[in-house]
Design brief:
Blueprint: H1 5-21, E1 25-34, E2 37-45, H2 53-70, E3 77-82, H3 93-98, E4 103-112, E5 115-125, E6 129-133, E7 138-142, E8 146-151
Parallel strand pairs: 2-3
Antiparallel strand pairs: 1-2, 4-5, 4-8, 5-6, 6-7
Helix pairs in contact: 1-2
């Protein structure tokens, strides 16, 4: 069972429209087989973060109703609407803006001061640089030197 790219694009565009009308951003969209059924997985959040379980449930019903009425995937499908979670990988400037003033962990391509791993509070984001307040200093880290980054829980 395969789905045509045009149908997949149509579903994605419709979902992006639903999200946009709610002030949400699409983080990830997947359409895949789960057993003998199609599954639509949508990971979404507000640009500043903070999506709730109730938001996800409301969107799930909206997307399910649309797919059920249009019969694009037939009668046997599931819809999953999820938040990205705190351990979501930070890749774009928008991702970093969302976690400004929060605690982050960064793995670097090229060491700074002999270290490939830094953690601290993300104080500012400029066009091509992140400013991280570590335990003792404020670091300027070029975005293109970040191999992997994620938000960390503060305890």
């Amino acid at each position: 069972m395969l789905i045509e790219e045009s149908k997949k694009s149509k579903i994605r565009e419709k979902i992006e429209g639903f999200l946009k009308s709610e002030g949400l951003s699409l983080v990830e969209f997947k359409l895949f087989l789960k057993g003998n059924s199609f599954a639509v997985r949508v990971i979404t959040d507000y640009p500043e973060g903070g999506i709730t379980i109730n938001d996800c449930a409301r969107l799930n019903k909206l997307i399910f109703s649309y797919l059920d009425e249009e019969k694009i995937l037939g009668d046997d499908f599931v819809v999953e609407v999820l938040s990205p979670g705190i351990d979501r990988k930070l890749t774009t400037k928008e991702d970093f803006l969302r976690v400004k003033n929060k605690f982050v962990a960064l793995w670097l391509n090229t060491p700074i001061e002999g270290k490939e791993y830094w953690e601290g509070r993300l104080m500012d984001i400029e066009e091509k640089d992140l400013f991280i307040k570590g335990k003792k200093q404020l670091l300027k880290i070029p975005l293109d030197n970040v191999k992997f980054a994620k938000q960390k829980l503060e305890i």
